[in-house]
Amino acid sequence: MANSDRHNTAVAHVYKGTFVHSTQQTALQILEDALLGVDTEGKIAFIAKGEELEKLTQTFGFTPSEVTQLAQHEFFMPGMIDTHIHASQYSYAGTALDMPLLEWLNTYTFPVESLFNDLEFARKVYNHIVKRTLRNGTTTACYFATIHTDASLLLGEIANKFGQRALVGKVCMDRNKFVEHYKESIQESQDETCRFIKELLNKKYPLVKPVVTPRFAPSCTGALLGQLGAIAKNNNLHIQSHISENVEEVKLVKELFPESESYTDVYHKYNLLTDKTVMAHGCHLSDKELDLFRQTGASLSHCPNSNFSLCSGILNVRNVLEHKVKLGLGTDVAGGYSASMLDAVRKTLDASKVLTIQDREHGTLTFEEVFRLATLGGSQALSLDDRTGNFKVGKDFDALRVNVAAPGGPIDLIQNDEPKILLEKFLNLGDDRNIVEVFVAGRKVVPFTE
Ligand SMILES: [Zn+2]
C-alpha cells in the first residue's frame, strides 16, 4: 500500500484538527482530530483520522513535520458561496434602503450602474467588493456587473487576480422607461453578450466563468429573453436573473407578458430555466411555480437582508426545500446592505423565525441547516457541487480557517466549548477577524499578499 507512485499528484499541504461541513445526508458533520491533504492541483487528496498519520505519510509521501496543526478554538469549514450579489452596487451599500424595489431601481440603482462606462470607477469598486467578500469568507460569488462589457470583463480579471471562484454576468436589458440612457438595443445586448462570453472564456481563467444575465423580465423584451436563452443553450452556460421579489413587480410582469401563465412561465418559455439557472428571491412564487423549478433543475437564491431592507417579502425556505428545489443564500448587495455571508446566514435564521412567529406550525430552520445552505446548498444552486461546497476527496479545497478566539475578535470564549458550539458562535457572533485564512482551490487567498 505504501506506494506514492500510485498517485498522479503528490500532496502539497496537510492540515490536522477539526473540520466541519455538510453532506447531502447530514446538515452538520464534525470531524475531530482529522487529517486533510491537498494535492498540487488544489484538490482534496484525502480525509482521514489523526491516528492514520503514519500510514498516510507513506502513501502520500510527506513527513509528520509538514503537517499544519490547527490551534485550540480553530476549525476548518467550507468556503461560503454567495449565489447572488451585485458587484456594481457596492459603492452605495449600507444606504438607500428607504424605497420598494421598482422605485429603488429607478432612483438609486440605474444612475449608479450607468457610471460603469468609466473603467477607473469600475476598477475601484470591483477591487473593493472582491476583497471585501473574500476576507469575509466568500470563496465563490455569482456576480451581476452592469450592461458594460469592458467593465464586466474587468470584474472577471479582478476576481481571477485575487483568486476568487466567480460567475460573472454582463447585465442585459433592452427596456428601461425611467432611466432612458441605461439600456441597450436588443441587437447591442445580444452582440455584447456574445463578445463578453467569448472574451472572458478566451482568458482561460481557471475559476472565473461567464453567466448569461437578463436583469429581470420587466427590463427585457420577450425577444431579448429568447435570444439569451438560445445563447446560454448553445454555449452550455449558467444563467442568472431575478424572480418574484415583490408583489408590484409580479403584477408588472403579468401586464408585460399577458400570454404567460406565471412569472416562472415567462422564463421557462424562453428556455431560461435550466439546471444551471439561479434566480434570486422567489418570495411570491406559487407551489406550482416551485414545481416547475424542480422539474427544470433551476435553483433559488435566498437574499433575506434585501427582502427585509426593501420590504419585498419573506421567502418560505422550508416550503422551497420541501418542493425539492435547490436553494443557496445571497447577500444581494446593495438591496442587502451587508456583503458578508455571515449576515446572510443570520438573516436567513431571522426570516425563518418571523415565519414561525406568524405561524407556530412553521418548521423553523436550524443553524445546521442554514450552515448547509451557505456552503453545500450554494454549490448545488450554482451547479458547482462537483467542484466545491464541502470536504470531499476530489473536490477543490475551498475553505475557511476559523479561529473563534481570535485576539481582538468579537467572541469571548468563557468555557471549553465543543466544536458544534464553536461553529454556532462563529455563525452568530463572528466576523472577518475570526476568518484567519481563506483558501480557494488550495491556494491561500487571505491574508492578501499585496
Ligand atoms: Zn439582485
Give a structural overview.
By secondary structure, the protein is of the alpha/beta class. It has 2 domains: about 130 residues, Urease, subunit C, domain 1 (Roll), CATH 2.30.40.10; about 300 residues, Alpha-Beta Barrel (TIM Barrel), CATH 3.20.20.140. Helices cover about 35% and strands about 20% of the residues. Strands 6, 7, 8, 9, 10, 11, 12, 13 and 14 form a 9-stranded parallel beta sheet that branches. A 4-stranded mixed beta sheet has the order 3-2-1-4. The protein has a 4-stranded antiparallel beta sheet with strand order 5-15-16-17, covered by helices on one side. Strand 12, helix 9 and strand 13 form a beta-alpha-beta unit. Helix 4 packs parallel to helix 5 and helix 12 crosses helix 13. It is globular, with a radius of gyration of 22 Å. The relative contact order is 0.15. The N terminus is likely disordered. The site of zinc ion has 6 residues, from strand 6.
Can you tell me the number of structural domains?
2
Please state the structural category.
alpha/beta
Fourth-tier CATH superfamily name of the largest domain: Metal-dependent hydrolases
Q: What is the top-level CATH class of the largest domain?
A: Alpha Beta
Tally of DSSP β-strands: 17
Which cofactor or ligand species appear? Answer: zinc ion
Output the CATH topology of the largest domain. TIM Barrel
Rg: 22 Å
CATH level-two architecture of the largest domain: Alpha-Beta Barrel
Count the helices. How many?
14
Largest sheet: 9 strands, parallel
Distance between the termini: 43 Å
Inertia-based shape: globular
Give the low-confidence spans.
1-8
What is the percent of helical residues?
Answer: 25-40%
Quote the average pLDDT.
96
Strand content: 15-25%
